Amino acid sequence: MPRVHCAAPLAAGPLRLTDEAARHVQVLRLQPGAPLTLFDGRGGEWAATVTRMDRAGVAVQVDEHHAIEREAARAVHLLVGMPANERMDWLVEKATELGVASIQPLVAARSVLRLDGERAARRQARWQAIAVAACEQCGRNRVPPVAAPLALAAWLQRPAEAGTRLLLSLRAGAVALRLAAPGAGAVFVLHGPEGGLTPEEEDAALAQGYLPAHLGARVLRSETAALAALAVLADL
Questions:
Q1: Are the CB atoms for 87 and 223 separated by under 8 Å?
Q2: SS3 for 46?
Q3: Which CATH fold topology does 3-66 show?
Q4: What distance in Å separates the CA atoms of residue 164 and residue 183, rounded to the nearest whole number?
């Protein structure tokens, strides 16, 4: 059954869909009487039926709420040294499918992709839309937030949130990722862009309580490392 995200809070009764949700329904070529599933990102999903489609938009009848969740067993937050080109788009999509709790794009010393101002805002909106579309596809009812890009140094100066902080690193003393975060609490995984973090950036992260962890002997691409870490941790 088609799944459509609606940014406005949902409740039982008649509803005119937001413009973005309406466009999705129109692209799917649904007709009056067609069933669909709506979710607003606040938990669970709603059974609904298309009642009218016209130039003004799409109207639906929202029926019962189903308290269905498909979230990962633990909250894994990715602190991403942004890869360049389309790789960040791909990372956001796949991380959402794998159950990421949130994504914080970071600009590090070796970052190829550098964003600020209006360009950063446009890219953030694009990434958030990709996360929404991935939730529609994979069945998640909670959309992970994708934050605005931030300098790594600025992130490290923020008060630490509760949870285990891990730094993906190949430096001596790093432990296997599977062993680095026992228990079920939240995990924050920091990794660098193409070329990795500089030794100085790694030292700054370690000084803020990040624990060095590795994914094995092979050197992975930035976006591959993030997704591998997420896959290892999310369902532990």
A1: yes
A2: strand
A3: Ribosomal Protein L25; Chain P (2.40.240)
A4: 10
176-to-14, 99, 186, 192 alpha-carbon distances in Å: 52, 21, 18, 18
- The values of phi and psi at residue 167, to 5°, are -115, 115
pLDDT digits (tens, 9 = 90+) for 201-227: 999 999 999 999 999 988 889 999 999
pLDDT at residue number 114 = 74
Q: Is the pLDDT of residue 163 over 80?
A: yes
| Model confidence band, residue 17 (pLDDT cutoffs 50, 70, 90) | very high
Instruction: State the pLDDT at residue 236.
Output: 61
**Measured between alpha carbons, how far is 11 from 23 in angstroms, rounded to an integer?**
20
Residue by residue, DSSP assigns 174-223 as PEEHHHHS-SSS-EEEEE-STT---HHHHHHHHHTTPEEEES-SSPPPHH
What is the pLDDT at residue 195? 87
How far from the centroid of its chain's Cα atoms is residue 88's Cα? 11
Provide the whole-model pTM.
0.93
CA 152, CA 95: separation in Å to the nearest integer? 20
- The domain spans of the chain are 3-66, 76-234
Domain spanning 76-234 has what CATH number? Answer: 3.40.1280.10
What is the DSSP annotation of 103-170? EEEEE-TT-S----HHHHHHHHHHHHHHHHHHHHHH--SSPPPBPPPEEHHHHHTSPPPSSEEEEE--
Q: How far apart are CA 71 and CA 17, in angstroms?
A: 25
Using a 10 angstrom Cβ sphere, with 0-12 exposed, 13-18 middle and 19 or more buried, the burial of residue 54 is exposed
3-state secondary structure of 77: strand
